[in-house]
Each structure stands twice: as C-alpha cells, then as structure tokens.
Design goal:
Elements (H helix, E strand, L loop, with lengths): L1 E5 L6 H15 L3 E6 L13 E5 L13 H16 L3 E5 L4 H14 L5 E6 L2 H4 L8 H10 L2 E4 L2 H11 L6 E3 L20 H4 L3 E6 L8 H14 L2 E6 L5 H10 L6 E5 L5 H4 L4 E4 L8 H8 L4 E4 L4 H4 L6 E4 L4 H13 L1 H18 L2 H17 L3
Parallel strand pairs: 1-2, 1-4, 2-3, 4-5, 5-6, 6-7, 8-9, 8-11, 9-10, 11-12, 12-13
Helix pairs in contact: 2-3, 8-9, 8-13, 11-14
Bound molecules: ligand GMT.
Length: 378
C-alpha cells in the first residue's frame, strides 16, 4: 500500500506512535509518506520506502495566525496526486482530519480519490476538541473520515459520549512498543554513577503540560525520598517545567531532581530506572508508561482515563486516585523496599508489554484496517 501519515512531529506520544507505525509499515514493504511541518523526531534521516514532505506555511504580514491547516491540505493533495496514495492516516484529529477532508474534496473534483483514516490520541477528544471553537469541526472531520480509531476503550467511549457521532464507528487499536528497543539488558544507563550516588532512580517522561500534574510527580518523589534515598529524573520539557522546578526547591529536594530536557532516545534512560511516575488527571493511553513497562520499570500512577488499560494495578504497577500523592508514594516505597516484589513486578511489566502491545500484532491491525477501508465503496 501507499500510505500518507500526518502527525505532530515534535515531542509527544501521538507523533511517536505515528512515526514508529510508519517505520514499521515501511519495513513490511509499504511505501510511507510523512506529510507535516518538520521531520518527525523519531524518524532517522533515511529509511527505505520512507519519504518526508515538508509543509511550508509561508509568512504574510496580514496573517496573525498562519493558516497551517490550508497549507497542509494543499500538500496532502499534491502528495496523494503525485505518489498515488491509497490512504491518508491522520494522527490527532485537529486539524489533520479536517485538512485531509479538504484535500480529498479537491481530489474528487479532479476525478481522483483517497481514503482517510483518523486516529484519535487524547486531548483532540478530551480537551481541545470539546472547546466551543473546535467542537463542530472535530465532529464533522471524524464523521467524514472513512475509518476512525482510538488508542483505548476509554477514548473510544469518550468520543461516543462527547460527540455522539452519527453513524461513526470507532475501532480501538492500542499503541505498541518495539520489544527489542525497550530491552533493559541491551542498554547502558547514560547518567554517571557519581550523579546517582547509589540512590534509587525514579523517572518521569512527558511534555510537561498541565494535564500531567508534574508538581504531583515532584511531591510523590519527595515523600518516597524521605524513606528510600532516590533521584528523580525528569525527561522532556513544556509549560509546567518551571512549576516542577519551583516545587522541587520548595520541598528542599532540588539537589536530587535532574531536569534533562527533551531527549529522543529514552530506552537507555528507562533501562536504569527503578520506578516510573505518571500522575496525569487525563491520559487516554500513556505511551510513556508502556515504554517504561517494556523496559521492566513498574509504573506508579493515577487511575485516570485509559491508563488502567495499560497498567494492571497490583501486577505491573500501582494506580491511585488522581492527586493521591500519599497513596502513590506509599506504594512506591513498599515496592522499592521489597526487592523480590519489585523483580516480580518488573518481569510482569516487561512480559505484559510484549504480550498485549507488541509492534507486530498492532501494526497488523492497522494493515487490516487499511485493507478494509480501501475496499469500501467511496
Ligand atoms: O493528546 C495529547 O495531549 C497529545 C498526545 C501526544 O502527542 O502526546 O498524547 C496523547 O496521545 C498519546 C499517544 O496515543 C497517549 O499515550 C497519551 O495518553 C495522550 N495524552 C493524553 O491523553 C493527555
């Protein structure tokens, strides 16, 4: 198949999933065209059958807000036409699914066609898509897609509840991991021993948006650190980073908190972690939690959104109510103090990630969906 993929290319789970899906599809013999404003962060410079088409928004003094969605539609139209794409796969509905609808409408005027698949990732449904300015166009774009997927049962149900789409069917296809990449035995932890000083390593990876509640991460760490000397490794960047830094200072733990900023290669970091924290108040899936599990790192997190579909409470980690910093810290302390329990949970996490979320099985589900969609009448 010839497949176009549009995603947010910068740091974030939806871009990571879209890029890894494209790479896996190309490895299986498909031709994959990424159409977006920058090279996706997990895409190496060259891979056979993988192409990148940059969307140039241009600048004009009249435009206070450059119309990216229109430039994207024009680029999608060109790439479908010039490379005879069968499918445009949009990751994150806004504005990608809308641009795809415009591109397809232009193609149909020329007697051509393409099928549109939209994968819903999270805040495109749970937050942004429900804002008054975006609700109607999000609903329209979902309904106009030939196929729609969501990354968890929670997100599918939330889509039905919030949008009540007419005649639309949302299929759940979970996110996935490459089992070889997240094998902790294959990596050397890059943080020097004289920085860690024999303390336990607690990690968080995110885009530091408000939904992640990163101050809860620091608070949970500070409580654990009172009982089990630890370091907190914060990977990523975003608007709440300064809040997290301030919280660490206020709680007197700043010297044990490392803010690494945005790092693309997270598997070597996860290979040295003892616990992963994810305290979000909304999380449609929690890709970073899955990557931690695959690396044999138990997850302590909030019982929010689709995270319980990924982390099995008491088996591959512990989930507590959103904001229950004490509960999360107690669970973390108990686990770090009991090596046998930690080892059992670490092995269960690595095995579960490989069983339920293996790349091979999930990519095959996307291939089957594309084939069904292409076979649909226009
Ligand atoms: O929805 C977002 O905030 C962005 C998106 C991203 O690009 O990181 O995150 C969502 O998609 C990920 C990949 O499917 C999921 O693992 C995240 O849980 C989800 N984020 C939220 O629901 C907050």
């Amino acid at each position: 198949m010839r497949i176009g993929i549009t995603c947010y290319p910068t740091y974030g789970g939806s871009g990571a999933v879209a890029t890894e899906l494209g790479i896996a599809l190309a490895a299986r013999g498909h031709e994959v065209h990424f159409i977006t404003y920058a090279q996706p962060f997990r895409l190496p410079s060259f891979l056979p059958r993988v192409y990148f088409h940059e969307v140039d928004v241009g600048r004009y003094p009249l435009f206070e807000y450059p119309p990216y969605d229109l430039a994207l539609a024009v680029r999608m139209h060109e790439v479908v036409r010039d490379h005879q794409l069968d499918i445009l796969h949009c990751h994150y509905a806004i504005p990608h699914a809308t641009s795809a609808w415009i591109a397809r409408s232009m193609l149909r005027e020329e007697g051509r066609d393409v099928k549109v698949v939209t994968t819903l990732h999270g805040t495109d449904i749970t937050i942004v898509g429900q804002e008054r300015s975006f609700f109607t166009i999000t609903k329209f774009s979902i309904e106009k897609s030939h196929a729609v997927t969501a990354v968890s049962d929670y997100l599918r149900d939330e889509t039905y509840r919030a949008f009540g789409c007419v005649g639309c069917q949302v299929d759940v296809i979970y996110n996935f991991i490459d089992p070889d990449l997240y094998d902790r035995t294959r990596h050397i932890f890059p943080i020097p021993a004289d920085v860690i000083k024999g303390r336990r390593v607690i990690m968080h990876i995110s885009n530091f948006r408000p939904v992640k509640r990163v101050r809860d991460i620091v608070k949970t760490f500070a409580r654990i650190n009172l009982d089990v000397p630890s370091v907190l490794v914060m990977v990523g960047d975003g608007p709440e980073r300064v809040e997290a830094e301030a919280e660490a200072r206020d709680l007197g733990v700043a010297e044990h908190v490392l803010f690494l900023g945005k790092i693309d290669a997270i598997a070597p970091l996860l290979a040295g972690a003892d616990l992963f924290l994810l305290t979000s108040d909304k999380e449609s899936f929690g890709l970073s939690a899955l990557e931690a599990m695959a690396s044999g790192v138990p997850v302590i997190g909030a019982h929010a959104g689709g995270l319980p579909e990924v982390v099995t409470d008491g088996v591959t980690g512990y989930l507590r109510s959103v904001g229950d910093v004490d509960g999360m810290a107690s669970a973390g302390i108990a686990l770090l103090r009991d090596h046998d329990r930690w080892k059992t949970m670490s092995e269960a996490a690595a095995a579960d990630a490989r069983t339920r979320f293996s790349e091979a099985a999930i990519v095959a589900q996307y291939e089957a969906l594309y084939e069904r969609t292409i076979a649909q009448p226009s």
